[in-house]
Design brief:
single chain; 8-stranded antiparallel β-sheet; 1 helix; 15% helix; rod-shaped
Length: 164
């Protein structure tokens, strides 16, 4: 008797495109939809805006030219009271430059008011010409030679550039 041979035939099922299960689609779709809805509502409604207060620069935020009675000049941070000259130790005061149309530039010593409306931002209230008396700044700075009003020279960082 002849023995029958047993051969196993493997059947392979060919399936079309694999589909993602609904649970995976919902698991990814719902959070994504919630994120989109949250973003759109945030952009439409927005958060309450806080009132932005601009930063106010204080006197110590500025650099000034300082000068002592012996004529030494140096640059330092602003402050209300005088500071000692690093060369001779005498009290130095802030100096600003004013221009007379006829006689050129004049260095003027400045005095700040410590009792202004905002103590963090004192204002210049007095000036003194070299070897002169302190005078109220509201009267205007006048040339010591011709008594004409002088203009303060503004610090222009681009003054060295040529204008077109």
């Amino acid at each position: 008797m002849a023995r029958a041979s047993t051969t196993t035939i493997r059947r392979i099922r060919v399936v079309g495109k694999e589909r993602t299960p609904w649970a995976v689609r919902l698991g990814l779709g719902i959070p994504l939809a919630l994120l989109i809805i949250a973003f759109v509502s945030w952009r439409l409604v927005g958060l309450p805006e806080e009132e932005l207060v601009p930063r106010q620069r204080q006197l110590a935020d500025f650099s000034f030219a300082w000068s002592c009675p012996n004529g030494h000049s140096f640059t330092g941070k602003g402050q209300l009271e005088s500071r000692p000259c690093p060369t001779c130790g005498l009290p130095a005061v802030p100096v600003d430059v004013y221009r007379c149309t006829e006689h050129g530039d004049v260095k003027v010593e400045i005095h700040f008011d410590s009792a202004s409306e905002d103590p963090q931002r004192p204002k210049a209230i007095q000036f003194r010409l070299p070897k002169g008396a302190w005078t109220d700044l509201s009267a205007g700075v006048r040339c010591p030679r011709c008594d004409k009003p002088m203009q303060r020279l503004a610090d222009d960082p681009l003054s060295h550039r040529k204008h077109p």
